[in-house]
Design brief:
Blueprint: H1 15-39, H2 46-64, H3 69-72, H4 77-103, E1 107-111, H5 113-117, H6 119-137, H7 140-149, H8 151-164, H9 174-198, H10 202-218, E2 232-236, H11 241-244, H12 254-269
Antiparallel strand pairs: 1-2
């Protein structure tokens, strides 16, 4: 029996083709924005990137004749509850290792007046990052992979893709690169698992946003190697970088790795009665 390379057994376009269509639509929107930004000596802001990814996702859903809520989840009280729960877990992901570092005297903090003046813009920055990355990595592509290959292959593929986009970040060298790579890969699995448990982007968005905001905007660590000016400024004592993550951030530390593994196991064991 010949297999139709374009249509599945239900006479619907195969998911691999939908992923290709998504990237084509995304490129058709992003390339003009990049050209215009270059002509005006500007960058395409992370907020605009999020809007472009959202628009590409919406167009693809229209072509599939499916609602955008299928990707994002329904905006109701439960969605916002999951968003807040994700925010609490994301905060704990950074606060717990920071507390351990402080208790043992490996890091202490000073007030950073400069951090207060830019805190609002920092919140907007990390909101844009969370929205853009969750739409890209847990949105249309991820959900087409789940439909086509199943949950485990989809998780592994997207975690690998997520890591690939971070490999050239500042500070990705030596032991930091090893720890950060493992941590980022598992963090992607955590975000994906949060979607699988709730069938919405509410919890992954909360997790991603608050983990970055607390790590950079509050505690003053780097975020994936990017320097941040937070409300607090960390002062590192003479301890190995694998304990603190150094300027890369807590996501390059052993303590951060332990916490993200624990959170993965907790979400994995969490069952709220959804299939």
């Amino acid at each position: 029996m010949l297999i139709n390379p374009f249509l599945n057994s239900e006479r619907q376009l195969r998911n691999g083709w939908w992923i290709l269509i998504f990237f084509l639509v995304l490129a058709s929107l992003l390339v003009p924005a990049l050209i215009m930004a270059q002509q005006n000596s500007m960058d395409v802001s992370i907020g605009l990137q999020a809007v472009i990814i959202l628009l590409a996702s919406w167009i693809c859903q229209l072509l599939r004749r499916r609602p955008l809520a299928e990707l994002l989840g329904k905006f109701n009280a439960l969605w916002f509850k999951e968003l807040c729960l994700g925010g609490l877990v994301g905060s704990a992901l950074m606060l717990v290792p920071a507390l351990v570092l402080w208790i043992f005297g490996w890091v202490h903090w000073q007030w950073n007046p400069a951090g207060f003046s830019i805190f609002f813009s920092t919140v907007l920055l990390f909101a844009g990052v969370a929205l853009a990355e969750e739409l890209l990595f847990r949105g249309f592509i991820f959900q087409r992979l789940i439909a086509g290959l199943g949950q485990v292959p989809a998780q592994l593929i997207m975690a690998g893709y997520f890591l690939l986009t971070h490999l050239n970040n500042p500070g990705m060298t030596g032991e930091v690169k090893v720890l950060a790579s493992i941590n980022i890969f598992i963090a992607s699995l955590v975000f994906g698992l949060a979607f699988l448990r709730t069938k919405s982007l509410g919890m992954p968005l909360g997790l991603h946003f608050m983990a970055n905001l607390v790590q950079g905007g509050v505690l003053g660590f780097g975020v994936s190697g990017t320097d941040q000016s937070g409300l607090l400024k960390p002062v590192f004592n003479k301890v190995p970088v694998w304990l603190t993550g150094g300027q890369f951030g807590l996501e390059a530390s052993v303590l951060g790795l332990i916490c993200v593994v624990i959170i993965f196991m907790l979400i994995r064991s969490w069952d709220q009665g959804k299939p």
